[in-house]
Amino acid sequence: MTENPSGILSVMPIDVDAVVLSNNRLSPNYNVVAIAAPEIATQAQPGQFVMVKQTLDSEPLLRRPFSIFEILRDEDGKSKGLSLLNKPVGTVTRKLFKIESGERLQCLGPLGQPFSIASSPGAAWMVAGGVGLAPFLTLAETLREQEVETTLFYGGRSTVDLVYLESFKRLGVRLVLATEDGSRGETGLVTLPLARELQTVSTDQPLNLYACGPTAMMQVVAELADTHGRSSEVSLEPVMGCGLGGCYSCVVPIHAQSNTTSSQLVRSCREGPIFGGNQVVWPELI
Length: 286
Hints:
CATH architecture of the largest domain: 3-Layer(aba) Sandwich
Number of helices: 7
CATH class of the largest domain: Alpha Beta
Number of strands: 16
Strand order of the largest sheet: 4-3-7-1-2-6-5
CATH topology of the largest domain: Rossmann fold
């Protein structure tokens, strides 16, 4: 994988007053909201995000970042909108869980740097924990277009935390599941089957790893990748105030390019949210 460009957005973000097309409540813990935002969807790349809230004058004052979950297309294959995977844990996310079709969302995007895309004949392994699944459906679609053999390692506390599996199956993605309570897949953390399978892959086979989820999980993925001589990219999820780089609320520590023993702070919304796993100074981030 190549490193992402530093701090340069490939397109100017667009602020859209988007109509909600549907709200698919998957469980009491997750829902998927589809919105009509073709201007954003047409430009979006896997790994990018949007900033949303219900109205400009609603509480809280600031928007919340969401990875672009799906690109929605019409019968002719043209982009007509996008969807957001949501978990109701705060003010904005609880409102988003209750939102109904026909209501509106203020949506700013696309924002941030995208994933680097693996190429055939290489393989791609995506590692997700809980709502960390969010950036991987668009990535899986792009990898399929590139004819890249793709696996999703997906973990959660229990089976109710493993959502949208059928969509990945339709894309031909191999699923490796794990739950902490053993209710589905392997019992334990998803990094356990990942570590085991990494030992079985020939060093001659190109393999790229992608991770999103709890910080400790992403750190383990990055360290496993380094141990086995593989490249990795992680999608970080710090608190963001503006999504445009102006407020500096989302700074994360990465290794200085000229000296791997020192670190520098960069804005996740501009230089990220995608970073090379070996770029991040994990002890300082945690």
